[in-house]
Amino acid sequence: DQQVKQNSPSLSVQEGRISILNCDYTNSMFDYFLWYKKYPAEGPTFLISISSIKDKNEDGRFTVFLNKSAKHLSLHIVPSQPGDSAVYFCAASARAYGNKLVFGAGTILRVKS
Amino acid sequence: DTEVTQTPKHLVMGMTNKKSLKCEQHMGHRAMYWYKQKAKKPPELMFVYSYEKLSINESVPSRFSPECPNSSLLNLHLHALQPEDSALYLCASSQGEGRQWDYGYTFGSGTRLTVV
Lengths: 113, 116
Hints:
A: mainly beta, B: 7-stranded mixed sheet, globular
C-alpha cells in the first residue's frame, strides 16, 4: 500500500510558465513533507519542505502548498526553467516514525524552451 | 564539505560474490541511511543508523548487512545476492537523532548494482 502517491508520472511545461506537481498521502499521521529533485546519475537533492502546521511555504521560485483536509500537497515552480527538468519526489514523515521518510514514485518534469 | 560520497558508482557482482558498498560524509550528521531504488519506483528505506547504532531495519534480508564503523562512515555488505536485488542503492545522512528537517536528508549519488 503506497502511502505517498504521485499520480502523474510525467509533466511537460513551456519555459516561463508555471509547473504544478501534485502529491497525495493516505496516512494522517504524516506531519512533515518534503520535495526532492533528482537528475539522472545523481542522488535526490532536497528542494523545499513544509510542516503540517502551515499551509504554504515559499522559497524563491518554489512554493509548496499543503491541504491537510484533502491530504494533498503541491509544488509550484514559477517561472519554470529548462534546468528544472528532473524527477521530483514527494516525501512524508511522521513524528511517531522518527527520521524515516516515505517517498512517492516521482514525477518527471520536462521544461521546454 | 556538504556531500555524501558513495563508492563504487557501479558494481556488477555474481550471486556467489561478497562485496561492500561504502558511504562517507563529513558534515557532522549523526543519522545515516541506506535506501534501495528500483527503476520507476520510489526510494525504499532499508536501514537507519543513529549515533552509530542501528535504529531501524525495515525487515531487510540477511544477505544485506549494514555496518557503521564511525560517525562518518556507513557500509553495506552484500553476500549471496539475487538478480532481483539489482537496483540503485542510495546512502543519505541527516542532522542528529529525531527529526531536524530544515534541510531534509543529504543523499549520495548512489551505487548502481547489477547482480548476474
